[in-house]
Amino acid sequence: MITSEPVGEWFWEPSPVSDPAETGMVKALGLLSEVRAALVSFGLVTDGGTASVVLSDRHAMASPLFSVHDVPVETVAGQAAAVQLLPDRLLTLSLKLPGEWTEAGVTRRAEKLFTVRIDVWGEGAVLLVLSAYADAWLTQDLRERPQPEVAAENAPRLAAALKRISELTGSEIDPGDATKHARPTPDGFADLLAEEAEYDDSWGTFEIPARWKRLMKLVPGESGGEDYESSTEHPVRYARVLRGEQVLGYLWASVGDAAAGYEPRNAAGDPAFEAGVPWLLRLRSLRMRGFGALEALGDLVGAGVEDPNGSVVEPTLHEMTSLDALEELSGRL
C-alpha cells in the first residue's frame, strides 16, 4: 500500500563542510545526485520527480529567504544558484521521486515512492534524510495481512541502497523512530511478523484520517455544514477522476445515506490531492442546491465537465461494498 506520510525514515550526518559559503552548495547538490543515482541503480527509483530549494534564516524559519517548490529535478542546480549560504542560514534541498516495486513479479509504480532531503547549515553541518512511502518492504501490509513474499521481492534492494548511501556519505545510518506504520532498522524495516506492529490497522487508523485532513486543507472557504457526510457504512458508487489516462482519484457517493466525497489515489502523488479540490467544491454546490448524494454524483458523471487543471470524471459508475474497500483501492493501485 502507498501512503501520503512516511512509512519510515533514515538519517545520515556526513562530515561538515569546511567552507559552507563556497562549497556547501556544491556538496549538497553532488550528494543529492549520488543518492538519487544509487536509488535508480537498485531499481527503486525511476526517471522524473520534482525538486525543491528553500533557504531560511534560522531565527525566522516560517519566512524563507528563498523558496521554489516542485520544479523538475533537472533544474535544481539552476534554481539553487540564486542561494547564498551564510552563518545562521539553513539550506534545504529535497526531491520527490517516483519509483517501482514488485508484487508476485508484477511491477507497481508510485509517483512519490521516496523523498530525499539534504539540510546544510551555514556553519557547515550536513544532514541527509531518506523517507519511504510504501509497505512493499514490510512482511505484513498496513492492514496486518502477511506479505512475506512481497518483502522478499523488494526489501533486499532497499537494504542494498541504504548500505550504498552510508558509503556515499561516509557516515553510519541512523534509523528514524518507529512510525505509526513500522519500525525502521539499519537495513530496512523490522520483521513485523516476528515483532508485531505497534498499531492495529495503521492504514485505517492513521493514514485515512491524515489524508482527509490534508485534502480538506486544500479546499477553500468554509462548508457551513453544507458538505455531504464524509463517511458511510453503506455500499458506495464511484467514478474515476482522470487526467489523460492517469487515475488521480475516485469520486463517490453512498447508496444509502447523504454521504459523498473524493478519495485521492496515493500512487498518483500530490496531483491526486490537488485534483480533488474542484470536484469537492462542485459536490458542495450541488448539496447546497438540494441534490441527494447519488443524484449529485450522477450529475457530475454525466456532465462531461473538465476542471481547469485538466481532470475529468469518467462517464462510468462502479460499485464497492463499502467506503473502506474504496479507500483501500485508492492506496493499493
Total of helices: 8
What's the count of strands? 14
Radius of gyration (CA) equals: 22 Å
Main sheet summary: 7 strands, antiparallel
Describe this structure in words.
By secondary structure, this protein is of the alpha+beta class. It is 33% helix and 27% strand. The chain contains eight helices and 14 strands. A seven-stranded antiparallel β-sheet has the order 3-2-4-5-6-1-7. The longest helix has 22 residues. It is globular.
SSE topology:
Elements lengths: L7 E5 L7 H22 L8 E8 L8 E7 L3 H5 L8 E15 L2 E16 L4 E7 L15 H22 L4 E2 L8 E2 L2 E2 L2 H4 L6 H17 L17 E8 L2 E9 L5 E5 L5 H19 L4 H11 L8 E2 L4 E3 L2 H10 L1
Antiparallel strand pairs: 1-6, 1-7, 2-3, 2-4, 4-5, 5-6, 8-9, 10-11, 10-13, 10-14, 11-12
What key attributes describe this structure?
seven-stranded antiparallel beta sheet, alpha+beta, 33% helix, 333 residues, five-stranded antiparallel beta sheet
In short:
With 333 residues, the chain is an alpha+beta fold. The chain has eight helices and 14 strands.
